[in-house]
C-alpha cells in the first residue's frame, strides 16, 4: 500500500462520548441560521456532526426531540441574558431602587435576547406545548434560575421592599410576561421590525417605564 494513500477523514465536530452535544450544537446553529425551529433538520444535524443519521437516534428519538432540546438551550440563553442585565445594575444602598432596577432588567434582557437571537427566541416559544417547559432545569441560566423564575424573584423583591402589595403580587407574572413578550414578538416578526434600532430602544424604555408604573 502506498504511503501516500488518502487517510480517512477525521471527525472534528465532536469528541468520543460527546455526540449529543455536537448534535445539539448543530441544531442551535440551524435555528440561528434559518430563523427558527423550522430550520432544524435531524439529517442535517447528523451531517454536521459527522455521523450517519442512524447514530442520532441514540440521543434524539426524532426531530421533535432535537427541537425541544434546542428550545431548552434557547430558554437557558434567555435566562443568561436577563441575568447579565441584572448583573450590570449599578450598585446602590437603596433597596427599593435596586428592586425596581432588577425588575426592569428582566424585561430589558428579554427584549434584548429576542432582538439579538431571533432564531433562538422563536424556537424557545413557538415549540412549547405548555407553560411548564419554561421552568425546567434545562431552561435555567448560569444562576440556576430560569427566565420565569427570575421574573418571579424580581416581583418578590418588589413585595419585600414594600413597592408591591401581596394582593397585587398574585399572578403578576402573567401580566408582566405577556406585555414584554408582545413587544419582543412585534420587534422581530411584526410591523415594529421596520423600526430603526434607536427607535426600538426608545420604545423598549417607554414600555418598561409603563410596566414599572403599572406594577
UniProtKB/TrEMBL annotation:
DNA-binding region ranges: 41-60
HTH tetR-type domain span: 17-78
Give the record's keywords alphabetically.
Answer: DNA-binding, Transcription, Transcription regulation
What residue ranges carry the coiled-coil annotation? Answer: none
Q: Which Pfam families match?
A: TetR_C_33 (PF13305)
Q: Which SUPFAM superfamilies match?
A: Homeodomain-like, Tetracyclin repressor-like, C-terminal domain
GO MF = DNA-binding transcription factor activity; transcription cis-regulatory region binding
PANTHER family, per the entry: HTH-TYPE TRANSCRIPTIONAL REGULATOR RUTR, TETR-FAMILY REGULATORY PROTEIN
Q: What is this protein called?
A: TetR family transcriptional regulator
Organism encoding this protein: Nocardia camponoti
Amino acid at each position: 500500500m502506498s504511503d501516500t494513500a488518502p487517510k480517512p477523514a477525521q471527525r472534528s465536530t465532536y469528541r468520543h462520548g460527546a455526540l449529543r452535544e455536537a448534535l445539539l450544537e448543530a441544531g442551535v446553529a440551524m435555528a440561528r441560521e434559518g430563523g427558527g425551529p423550522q430550520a432544524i433538520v435531524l439529517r442535517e444535524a447528523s451531517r454536521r456532526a459527522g455521523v450517519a443519521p442512524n447514530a442520532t437516534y441514540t440521543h434524539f428519538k426524532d426531530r421533535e426531540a432535537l427541537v425541544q432540546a434546542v428550545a431548552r438551550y434557547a430558554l437557558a440563553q434567555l435566562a443568561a441574558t436577563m441575568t447579565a442585565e441584572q448583573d450590570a445594575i449599578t450598585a446602590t444602598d437603596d433597596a427599593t431602587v435596586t428592586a425596581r432596577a432588577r425588575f426592569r432588567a428582566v424585561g430589558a434582557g428579554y427584549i434584548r435576547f429576542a432582538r439579538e437571537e431571533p432564531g433562538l427566541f422563536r424556537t424557545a416559544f413557538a415549540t412549547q406545548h405548555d407553560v411548564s417547559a419554561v421552568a425546567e432545569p434545562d431552561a435555567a441560566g448560569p444562576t440556576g434560575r430560569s427566565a420565569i423564575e427570575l421574573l418571579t424573584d424580581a416581583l418578590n423583591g418588589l413585595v419585600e421592599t414594600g413597592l408591591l402589595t401581596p394582593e397585587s403580587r398574585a399572578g403578576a407574572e402573567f401580566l408582566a410576561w405577556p406585555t414584554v413578550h408582545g413587544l419582543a414578538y412585534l420587534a422581530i416578526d411584526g410591523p415594529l421590525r421596520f423600526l430603526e434600532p434607536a427607535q426600538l430602544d426608545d420604545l423598549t424604555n417607554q414600555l418598561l417605564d409603563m410596566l414599572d408604573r403599572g406594577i
